Amino acid sequence: MIIMTLEKVPKALRGELTRWLLEVSTGVYIGHVSARVRDLLWDKCVDRKQTGRVFQAWSTNNEQHFNMRMSGSLVRRVVDHEGMMLVEELKEDLTAAQTSRILREELTQAREAGEGEEEVG
Q1: In the chain, what are the domain boundaries?
Q2: For 16-63, how does the pLDDT look when each residue is reduced to its tens digit (9 = 90+)?
Q3: Parallel, antiparallel, or unpaired: how do β-strands 66-71 and 22-25 relate?
Q4: From the CB of residue 53, how many other CB atoms can be counted at a distance below 10 Å?
Q5: Which pick of 29, 37, 59, 96 has the fewest CB atoms within 10 Å?
Q6: Rounded to 10 degrees, what is the CA torsion of 77, 27, 33, 82?
Q7: Residues of 76-90 as b/e, b for ≥16 C-beta within 10 angstroms?
Q8: 33: nearest Cα among 107, 24, 42
Q9: CATH match of 2-113 with 3.90.1640.10
């Protein structure tokens, strides 16, 4: 199972996602795809989101029974806290250096999440 949310992205990208997933509400998509398709959809959305935001969660074999990632949000970010994936809400105004650091961490997490993943069927 996969869930994706898209905010403030081009309409063409939202339409393209409906080829693979069911849009249950504006910008909210669910479905069941392979790990490869999931990662390709993620890459496509991140590359084409422009100034928008993308969130993805999927079933997997871990303590929480799901994993997640997000891109484009400077208000929230996914953090790994002792093996538990949590969403951290940033309440302070960020400097350019802090924003850059968060974006680098997000990119590193996305790369690491793509390695050695197991999908629950």
Answers
A1: 2-113
A2: 999 999 999 999 999 999 999 999 999 999 999 988 899 999 999 988
A3: unpaired
A4: 19
A5: 96
A6: 20
A7: ebbeeeeeebeeeee
A8: 42
A9: no
